[in-house]
Design goal:
alpha/beta, 7-stranded mixed β-sheet, two-stranded parallel ribbon, 9 strands, 16% strand, globular, disordered C terminus
Length: 286
């Protein structure tokens, strides 16, 4: 029997017509148990225009950030599998379907889409400047983190519920850096990660800043490195000493006012046998 799927679509002032068409196609192809649109700071009339969409709409005032929106959606789900896709529809529906197929096959606890995989089909690329910034961040993240993948930020990922229950209480990034922290901490907890090539087209109305977002991601990768080494106990004494000198970051669930039990914070049956993507850890590498 196929395991149940819940799909979350984080959205900040989206193109409503494009979002409606994307969600309808996702519902047809994936047949999820539920779809949640986590809508931040919507323009007047947006919720009403989305009422015919086959999804639950959770609209909030203000901007929580992508990571907080996905976390809120995942914590509201009760499905065995949880996936999210960016609202701009840049990841093709058939690629999202492939990601879901792979997570349902059960060989990995986290399956991520990749625009930089050798087999990815990039139909409409970003500007040369944004593409270079993205490549630079991927290069940096591979050198900072134990987990090495080609694309940390692609807006299509799926995770098993037990892995989510384990990692959710540790997440502290509420914005775009949430993706890289998710990968780093899932890997640190010993779960397996699989990368799937996607068909992808750049969305011209994306809310990603070409300057501010790369800086946020770089800082987030450094924080993720620190937290992953603490959680995975692979950083020797340095990261424990740093932790004593720093105040603990506010967890995403605390920002959202979600109680640990509501976040699915029970440890589940335990982590998998190790990450399929990350290299061997070195306890002296800090």
């Amino acid at each position: 029997m196929s395991r149940t799927l819940g799909l979350v679509v984080p959205a900040f002032r989206p193109n409503v017509d494009a979002l409606r068409a994307y969600v309808i196609e996702l519902e047809k192809r994936l047949d999820p148990e539920t779809i949640r649109i986590e809508l931040d700071d919507p323009d007047p009339g947006t919720v009403e225009r989305l009422e015919a969409v086959p999804a639950t709409i959770n609209a909030v005032e203000g901007r929580r950030g992508k990571g907080a929106a996905v976390t809120a959606g995942f914590c509201a789900l009760e499905t065995e599998l949880r996936a999210f896709v960016d609202a701009d529809g840049s990841t093709a529906v058939h690629s999202v379907e492939r990601i879901v197929e792979r997570i349902r096959e059960g060989e990995s606890e986290l399956v991520i889409g990749s625009r930089r995989h050798p087999e990815a089909d990039v139909r409409s690329s970003q500007s040369a400047f944004r593409e270079q910034l993205g490549d630079g961040f991927a290069w940096l993240a591979r050198r900072l983190l134990s987990i090495s993948v080609s694309d940390y930020q692609c807006g299509a990922k799926a995770i098993e519920a037990d892995a989510w229950r384990s990692v959710c209480p540790h997440l502290s990034e509420h914005g775009f850096a949430w993706d890289v922290e998710l990968l780093a901490l899932v890997d640190a907890l010993g779960y397996r990660v699989e990368e799937v090539p996607v068909t992808w087209a750049d969305a011209p109305d994306s809310t990603v800043s070409s300057v501010e977002t790369p800086l946020e991601l770089a800082r987030g990768a450094l924080r993720a490195r620190h937290r992953a080494k603490r959680i995975g106990d692979t950083g020797g004494g340095l990261h424990a000493a740093l932790a004593k000198r720093r105040s603990e970051p506010t967890r995403v669930i605390e920002r959202l006012g979600i109680e640990p039990g509501e976040a699915g914070s029970s440890p589940g049956p335990g982590p998998g046998p190790g990450s399929a993507s990350g290299p061997d850890r070195n306890a002296d590498d800090d």
